[in-house]
Amino acid sequence: MALGIHALCFDALDPAGLAGFWSGVLGWELVDDPRDGVVLLPDDDTGFRLRFVPTQAPKSGPNQLHFDLTSASLADQQHTVARALALGGRHLDVGQLPEEEHVVLADPEGNEFCVIEPGNSFLADCGFIGALSSDGLQEVGYFWSKALDWPLVWDQDGETAIRAPYGGPKITWGGPPVAPKVGRNRLRFELAPSPGTDEVSQVDRLVALGATRIDLDLLADPGGNEFRVLRRPGG
Predict the structure, then answer these.
(1) Does residue 150 sit within a domain?
(2) Which of the two residues, 159 and 98, has the higher pLDDT score?
(3) Domain span at 220
């Protein structure tokens, strides 16, 4: 792979506080990295870190992307929900139906996430972070499949999903309709070129695949979702 996901970046009013919440929910180590700042390091096959960066902009609408956390049993689902609430999360009504068994929550800064019911077949072979569930059309899933060189594991009725060859979470796109984009996404990917790979040529490759340049290393995918290609130290 010429590019990999280095981090999922959260804009946060209180980076340390929000990182502490997610550290408690996920059980990941919180560190202060000299280069990346406040980060959580995975202890499983997730394959990327979570990075929390300061912003003064309040959240203005639903996120384009959210976590789907898996459950081994009903008791496990209830335990995850209780832990998140104790850490400062809250229940969230997004129009879910009474018969739906997943639980929708928000973290202390309003970022949505779901705790999925046990027995979900789509996420059966995934870890605790089962999916990064995204709002987007089929073409966005196709773009990211080619950008990361990850295979499509779902492509039906306008919905797509990809997954790294080594496993980890699935990244899914729900297909139409897509909510209008409001401001800059609070959650976005940071990509890192593989060792020996020229990041400039990788940016050019992404543009050829359908990305739009916003800045030197900041781009947007075909759905308008921002992401960054990291520059190598000294690059």
Answers:
(1) yes
(2) 159
(3) 3-229
